Every structure is written in structure tokens, then in C-alpha cells.
Amino acid sequence: MTQSSGRRTKVSRVIEEYDLEGMGAQLEASWTDETGERMSLRDLADEFNQAVLEAALRRVGVSPVSFQVDGTYESLRHGSGPERTRAKRRLEREGADPERLTNDFVTHQAIHTYLTTDRNASLPENETAPVERKVETIEKLEGRVAAVSESAVASLASVDELDRDDYDILVDLRAVCPACGSDYPLGELFRNGGCGCAR
Fold this sequence. Notes:
By secondary structure, the chain is mainly alpha-helical. The protein has 10 helices and 2 strands. The protein has 2 domains: 8-124, no CATH class; 128-199, no CATH class.
């Protein structure tokens, strides 16, 4: 679909900054795929962020293959403190700026905002799976909460009630099983049909 005009989203800015030509169309196709191979917004965010990491490595003359992008990204995004520190130090040794890079990573809410706002994308009309409908409803609400929160941050920063306006807002609804203590993102729990401890 065509892109809308107006204020650019973070995803749009990062695509331009890292020369990720074709990424917008790829994200849209993966999200709206009518063949049943649709990717979740969380998976799309991970795929996008890895592409950003690869682009940053190429800029400093490093082959993404030799750098083990998957492992580095996991350490930066989901690793423990020491794992993140090691990954950042390795990036610094290669000449990349890890702080700038991680600040350019996006959330699944940002992907949703980009797809629905910049590309005017929507899920197929024949999307009938009840689980996917519920997941989509929750992801839309998460995106709305994130947008309202970002607006509040910008508003408070503009009147010097907050020290800066570029905080990343994370909205992550999770479910914890009272029986086994498993902790899942709500969408993942729905798609898995539960945590499995009672099966």
C-alpha cells in the first residue's frame, strides 16, 4: 500500500537512516500474508532490528555472517547485563556505536504504528481465526497505550517537567501461570493454547 504523509514514525526514520530499501514492503507482506504464514508483530520487530544491526555492521566494514548477528542481537535485546556488556564492547571494537544502535531498535508497537499509519496496512478481511483476532486486538491496544504514553512524555518534556523526550516506551502484556509460574507474552500464550503444564 502507499505510504501516508505527515509525521514520520520511528520505523520510517530508521529505514531511511540505515538504507533499508524494500524493508517496508517486506514487513507489510509478512504481516498481511493471506496464505496462513503471517508473522507476529514481535517477530517482525526482531527481524527488523536484526536488519538494522546488519546494516550498522556493513557501514563499518564488518561481515554480518562472521559477526553472528543472531547471537549478538539476542545478547543486546534479551541477554543478561554481562551478556549485553560483552556484545556492546565487541561492537565498539569493530567501530560501531552500540548506544546509537540499540536506541534505533524498535518495539512491536512501533512496527504496528508504522504498518497501520505510514503504510495504511490492515489484516485481510477474511482473517477469521479467533486467536489471531484476539492477539491483534491486544496488540492494537498496546500500540495505543504506547502512543498515548509517548505523547505524554513529549508534552512533559516540552514544559521542562521531564528531562528528555526520547524515552523508548515499552508496553508488554504478559501472563503468569499460577500453577507452574511460567511467564509468557499474552499473544504467545494464546497461540500456544496455554503454557502446557496441565496437559
